Amino acid sequence: MTLETGRFGQLTVGNDETISIPQGVLGFPELTRFCLVDPGDETLILWLQSIQDPKVAFPVLEPKIYRPDYAARLSSAELRELKLENVNQSAVYCILTIPEDVTQMTANLKAPIVINLKEQIAKQVVLQENEYSIKHLMFKELRQHLVTIRSQQRSARPESEVHASPVQIRNIPPSLTVKSLQA
After folding, report:
1. CA of 84: how far to CAs of 29, 77, 126, in Å?
2. Buried-exposed string 119-136: b where 16+ CB fall within 10 A, e elsewhere
3. What's phi and psi for 170, nearest 5 deg?
4. Dmax of the chain from CA atoms?
5. Phi and psi for 123 in degrees, rounded to 5?
6. Contacting residues for 157 by C-beta, under 8 A, at least 6 apart
7. pLDDT reported for residue 183
8. Which string of b and e fits 37-58 if b means at least 16 CB within 10 Å?
9. CA–CA distance from 4 to each of 12, 31, 39, 94, 181 (Å)?
């Protein structure tokens, strides 16, 4: 399908690039079909783009990038809703808030999006752990991670034109951050 987005222009989204979020994202229960978009800008930030409302896109990032000890502990009911037979078939993303002053960027660690990579379904779960904040300042850690990556990738390659593109869900590496409460 072809989607005319507010942020990325025209995108062609295939079935292998769609995610169903049956209960929607908090505050947007009516939006249940999404795709992940890689803007191609080397920030590691992806965008959870609504297919139903092309003006709606949430910046998301894997929490292990800026919080290596992060674990999303899911109840057996949440695992069933996600049809997760194996927690290693999942990816976890936190929604970011990016203000005008990007150094004040925050991540919602309390309510991550958990994706079953095999079934291409997701759920925004509200974790019970009190250690996680809905406004975790993380710009410093992200910048440090990006500097490390860039120093490892130093090569004389020409700058190519940047194109946003949908991400094939089954090709996303598992986050290995989902845990069962029973474990």
Report:
1. 22, 10, 17
2. bbbbbbbebeeeebeeeb
3. -70, -15
4. 50
5. -150, 140
6. none
7. 45
8. bbbeeeeebbbbbbbeebebbb
9. 9, 16, 15, 25, 40
CA distance 35 to 14: 9
Exposure pattern of 137-155 as b/e (b: 16+ CB <10 Å)?
Answer: ebbeebeebeeeeeeeeee
Cα separation, 55 vs 39, in Å, equals: 15
Instruction: Return the number of other C-beta atoms located less than 10 Å from residue 59's C-beta.
Output: 19
Question: How do the pLDDT tens digits run along the chain, 183 residues long?
Answer: 999 998 999 999 999 999 999 999 999 999 999 999 999 887 889 999 999 999 999 999 999 988 988 999 999 999 999 999 888 899 999 999 999 999 999 999 999 999 999 999 999 999 987 889 999 999 888 888 787 766 666 553 445 566 888 888 888 888 777 777 654
Token pair belonging to 90: 């999942």
Q: Which CATH architecture has domain 2-151+162-176?
A: Roll (2.30)
